[in-house]
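Hi everyone,

Forwarding the result from last night's run.
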Amino acid sequence: MSDLVCVGSITGSYGVRGEVRLKSFCAVPEDIEVYSPLTNDTGNERYPLVLTRQIKNGFAARLGGIETKEQADELKGLRLYARRDQLPSLPDDEFYHTDLIGLDVYDTGGTLLGSVKSVQNHGAADLLELHGPGLNSTVLLPFTREAVPTVDLEKGRIVADPPEGLL
């Protein structure tokens, strides 16, 4: 497990005074400000963050050291990370998406199905995007108790009981 967890991204500039458009990946979107200062993926650049207002699809925010629209434009696409020890601990049946990515997925008989490439959510529930040598195409496995009865982070594996016809 990485010491850094992605909590948001910069989607562009907002206005002409150096504000950025911010998309939060937090369960409570406003909590992203609590984890400030945030870092880049390597942790070597720090970004103090202050939310200024809510806007469509996210927030307008100020990042420390960003004063102009041009500087804000240069940050488009930047993913922002918080240290794991800053984040709340989760109940046993909840996981950070970053912890699921890369885990091997086995069926209930012990056959390797593939590995988790990403975790997606298109509105209804989380889906695990599986890739693997035995799969002809991408498989989106519902991340529910019925379809995924076991997640073992220590062993780096998921046991799945995919719905009939999915594979």
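The mean pLDDT is 91.

Cheers,
N.
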